[in-house]
């Protein structure tokens, strides 16, 4: 009967939830937004950095932080033009490094720039836990977390350990990237994290000489995926040299060229 099925499902959910960690907010942080992608190289870190800066630019009364949860390939130090080791507070918490008014924390501040992190999963999880819990974030209205690509340990751990206001999925319109973006969106749904929407990155390239537009990675792939999943498209970002150059030079486009189309 349907009532017996419901009772079984309830029982199963209770048993499964026993093994899950209890969600505990990060001290001083009001809202957590995670930026994720199924595949690497789709511009997730670039988007995360510019979203953090845009949140701060949009309302100067808001305090914004940026956490780089990519242990193997941290990008935030370069993109936010930050170097050095975090100082410790009297409570033995790390102080985030700041630039453009954004408090930043990354594995890149704790290891040499060229040193590879050759760690197994348990050590990575321990590092992520430290970056979340052993940092003096002060009082933040928003903490933007730049996730590593994929749907593995780090994504699950972050989703299950802290309350997340929402996830943003970044993808190019290419079919190969869309397959993984869909998995990312489904993963967040499974762990009950609201997906705020999708960002279509590298959507179109405009020739700087003749202004002809080319859809190098395909057209509207992310829009079609958003329709299929019943999600919003939050932005459509062109493949533009300024976006790449400004991030590589540590002066992201939102802060260095706020009036530009990009």
TrEMBL record:
SUPFAM superfamilies assigned to the protein according to its UniProt record, in alphabetical order: P-loop containing nucleoside triphosphate hydrolases (SSF52540)
BP terms from Gene Ontology: iron-sulfur cluster assembly; mitochondrial respiratory chain complex I assembly
An example Gene Ontology molecular-function term: 4 iron, 4 sulfur cluster binding
Name of a matching Pfam family: ParA
PROSITE patterns xrefs: MRP (PS01215)
Keyword Iron: yes
Keyword Iron: yes
Name of this protein: Iron-sulfur cluster transfer protein NUBPL
Subcellular location: Mitochondrion
Domain of life, source organism: Eukaryota
InterPro entries in the record: Mrp-like_CS (IPR000808), Mrp/NBP35_ATP-bd (IPR019591), NUBPL-like (IPR044304), P-loop_NTPase (IPR027417), YlxH/NBP35 (IPR033756)
Cofactor or coenzyme needed: [4Fe-4S] cluster
GO cellular component: mitochondrial matrix
UniProt keywords, alphabetically: 4Fe-4S, ATP-binding, Iron, Iron-sulfur, Metal-binding, Mitochondrion, Nucleotide-binding, Transit peptide
Family: Belongs to the Mrp/NBP35 ATP-binding proteins family.
């Amino acid at each position: 009967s349907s009532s017996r099925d419901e009772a079984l499902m309830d029982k199963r959910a209770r048993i499964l939830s026993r093994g899950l960690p209890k969600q505990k907010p990060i001290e001083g942080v009001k809202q957590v937004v995670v930026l994720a992608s199924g595949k690497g190289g789709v511009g997730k870190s670039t988007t995360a950095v510019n979203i953090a800066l845009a949140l701060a630019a949009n309302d100067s009364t808001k305090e914004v932080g940026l956490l780089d949860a990519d242990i193997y390939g941290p990008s935030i130090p370069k993109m936010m033009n930050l170097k050095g080791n975090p100082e410790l507070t009297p409570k033995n918490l790390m102080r985030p490094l700041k630039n453009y008014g954004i408090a930043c924390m990354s594995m890149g501040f704790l290891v040499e720039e060229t040193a590879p992190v050759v760690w197994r999963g348990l050590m990575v999880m321990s590092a992520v836990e430290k970056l979340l819990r052993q940092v003096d974030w002060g009082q933040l209205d928003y903490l933007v977390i730049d996730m590593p690509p994929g749907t593995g340990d780090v994504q699950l751990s972050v989703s299950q350990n802290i309350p997340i206001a929402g996830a943003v999925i970044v993808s190019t319109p290419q079919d190969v990237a869309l397959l993984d973006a869909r998995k990312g969106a489904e993963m967040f749904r499974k762990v009950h994290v609201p997906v705020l929407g999708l960002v279509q990155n590298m959507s179109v390239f405009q020739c700087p000489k003749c202004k002809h537009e080319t859809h190098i990675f395909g057209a509207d792939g992310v829009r079609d995926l958003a329709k299929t999943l019943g999600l919003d498209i939050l932005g459509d970002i062109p493949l533009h040299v300024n976006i790449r150059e400004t991030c590589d030079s540590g002066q992201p486009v939102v802060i260095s060229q706020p009036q530009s189309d990009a």
